[in-house]
């Protein structure tokens, strides 16, 4: 599994792009790729938990969604995660 950490600014482009991004995450959740996703409580960023086997698939996920290149959205970290509880 992988954790994608995002940071946000108040750029209006981010809010305009968010509905399409959330629709995409919802579809990928149904497919089992996105396990969890959501903003931090203070809306300074978000966390997405991906169930993919390798970094290449994470990079493909990021490249396929224009949201991650939108002003106001920064991918801060991508980390491999090895949970022992599901």
From TrEMBL:
Pfam families: YCII. Residues 11-81 form the YCII-related domain. Belongs to the YciI family. This is YciI family protein. It comes from Actinoplanes sichuanensis.
């Amino acid at each position: 599994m992988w954790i994608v950490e995002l940071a946000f600014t108040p750029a209006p482009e981010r809010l305009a792009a968010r509905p399409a991004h959330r629709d995409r995450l919802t579809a990928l959740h149904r497919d089992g790729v996105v396990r969890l996703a959501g903003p931090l409580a203070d809306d300074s960023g978000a966390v997405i938990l991906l169930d993919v086997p390798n970094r290449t698939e994470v990079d493909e996920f990021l490249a396929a969604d224009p949201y991650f290149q939108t002003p106001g959205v920064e991918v801060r970290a991508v980390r491999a995660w090895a949970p022992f509880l599901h």
